[in-house]
Amino acid sequence: MYNGQKVLDVHGHMSTPPHFRAYAYNLIALRSPAEGIGADIPEEALDAAQKRHLKVMDERNIDLQMLSPRPVAYMHWEAAFLVAHWTRVTNDTIHKITQMYPDRFVGIAQLPQNSKIATSNCVAELERAVNDYGFVGAIVNPDPAGDRATPGAHTEYWYPLYEKAQQLDVPLIIHPSISRDPRIEIVPHSYQINNVTEEFIWTQLMLHSDIFKTFPRLKVVVCHCGGALSRFIERDARHSGELEGMKNNLFFDTCAYDETFLSAAIKQKGVDQMLFGTEAPGSGGAIRPDTGRPSDDMVPIIDGLDFLSTEDKLKIFNGNVRKVFTRLKVPEAVAA
Hints:
The protein is α/β, with parallel strands linked by helices. It has helices at residues 18-30, 43-59, 80-100, 123-132, 159-168, 191-207, 211-214, 237-240, 259-269, 299-303, 310-324, and strands spanning 8-13, 64-68, 105-109, 137-140, 172-174, 220-222, 250-253, 274-275.
């Protein structure tokens, strides 16, 4: 809780026991998905993984977290028939987790993306996840094949997905996965570089296109503060774009562990565009030397930003999340 309001985290990834990843590897190796058959995870093992996950959330003062697939396990670079099956298994598993702990988790859907197939391929699974499972959004990989060859976010390639997301009133969360760029092979966890480049490119394409005029009710959340900062002043529209006209459409989460970067991102994007996100448990386990706490313990970091008012902080932790994720149903406030 923060000042009597629940802390809502839009950037969480599912935790699963080894059975889940083993199923994925067997699916890739055997290349024989069986319709109606999913990952056979014992309930005790799945619950044990959630208890570890919830311990991390409790330690970081997170009341509710949106669960999406782990990006390194999207499998979008695989054959389309395998991705379709794996996507259903993934969403089924997220749904099971949300049923186990409905007061702590809500679902964010994986989509069966493939760079060689139209995004209309994703519509049925998005509808299933939202209408049947109560998911409140979907995660989108801007570079499904990891080769930077997928059409840009401003092109008609994405229109079927935009149209359906707008119709269902569910935000699309932009979060890349792996990169096949041979230049970065020596960099450990090189998918993190893809997060920077692909999220920043997506943001720029939104800022310099008419997407939100074509889809005025579409809402997009770009992870990791939009991937990168702009070095240009806001009034230089040649480079910074026109965020002012997209205040109801384009948002960013706070999942950036360096305090200087996070502060600059909030100031550049504006408080009203920022949603609380941690990715905990995930890549933010390094210990801060000043606090002795993990870097993804973000509530005290944001609380300590002296340029933010209490009202600003409540918007980031709670109010902005509710505004963007209209299908999210949690009590508005509790007694402090």
